[in-house]
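Quick sanity check, Xanthine dehydrogenase:
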Amino acid sequence: MDSYQLLTNVTKYKDMPSVLATIVDVQGHAYRKAGASMLFRTTGESIGSISPGCLEADLAQRIDDVWNTGKHQFVDYNLHPEEDVIWGEAIGCGGKIRVLLEPVSGLLKSLLELAFAHMNHNRKLYLYREFYDDHIRYTSSLTAASSISSNLFETCFSPRERCIIFGAGDDAIPLQRILINLNFRVVIADWRAELCMPERFSEAEFIIGDSEYCVNRLKPRSGDYVYVGSHHYHHDRKVLELLTKMKLAYLGVLGSTKRVDMLFKGISRPDYVKAPAGISIGAEGAEEIAVSVASELILVRKQLMFQITGRDQDANSRLVHGSRGKQENGSAQAFFGIIPGY
C-alpha cells in the first residue's frame, strides 16, 4: 500500500481498531522492500499487501494479540528454499524479512494523522521508530536524520507527486485511473467543461480554461509530471510553448513521431521531454497506451528518487545507524511543526 492510501485509511477510519504491519528489514531478495506497509483490522479486513499473499495469513493470526496487549511484535521470515521449504516454495524470493506489527493507537496514531495533514499541505514528515527491548520510542521531524541512534528506523511520508493531464478526452480516463492507484495527485486541465466531470474522472482535480489560463493557474514546478494529449494541435502546441520554458520532472506528449515533430517545430525539447510519451511496448488503444505512459512515469519517478536519496525503496524508509547508547528515559516523545488548523 502506498503511504497516502495508508494514511487516508488511518485517518478516515480512526475509530476502527487496526494494526500496522511494516517491513523494517530485508536481507537478500524480497517482493517488497523496507518501508512497505499494510493495515490489518481486528474485524478481519486487511488493506494493502507486503508479499504476494503468503505472509498475510500468518500475520493476520497475530493481530488480535497485538491489539489486545497494546504491544508491538517483530515477526521474522526466512524465505530461503533450502532453509525453509514452506516459505521458500510459497514466495521463491530467497531472502529474510523482518515485519513489525504495531497497534495503531496513542502517539503512533497521532503521528500518522499528522503525517497525513502534512502530505495534504504538500510537506514531508519523517517518522522515526527507536527500538528498545520492551517498547518503541516514536518521534517525528520535518527534516531527515543523519545519525541519531543505534537502532532507528526512518520513514519519510512525502506529498504525492502531481501529474497534470492536459486533455480530458476518453483516452485520459484509464490513464487517470492508473495514476491515482500509483499514488499520483492527478489534475485534469481542459477547456471543455462538459468533459471535466467527476463521473468521468472520479478522484481527479479539475481546472477549466484555455491553455494559457490553465498553465498560469497551475504554475507547474520542478516536481510535476505533465502529460499533453488533447488531440487538438493548436491547444497542445500552445501548452508546449509554455511548458518547455519551465523545469519539470516529466513532460510526455501523446502522438506519433510525425505529429510530435510538428508540435515541436521551432520549440526546443528539454531533457525531461518524452515524445512520443510512453515505454515502447507496442501499445494499441487507450488502455494499453495508459499502461505504457504510466510505466514511463514509474521509471522516471524511481530514477529521480534514487538521484535524490541514493536509495530506491517502497516508502522511502531506512535504518539509521549511529553510536548513541540507550537513553535513560525512553518514553515516547515527538517533535514536529505546527500545521494551521490541524
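Posting the structure with no commentary besides this: The radius of gyration is 22 Å.
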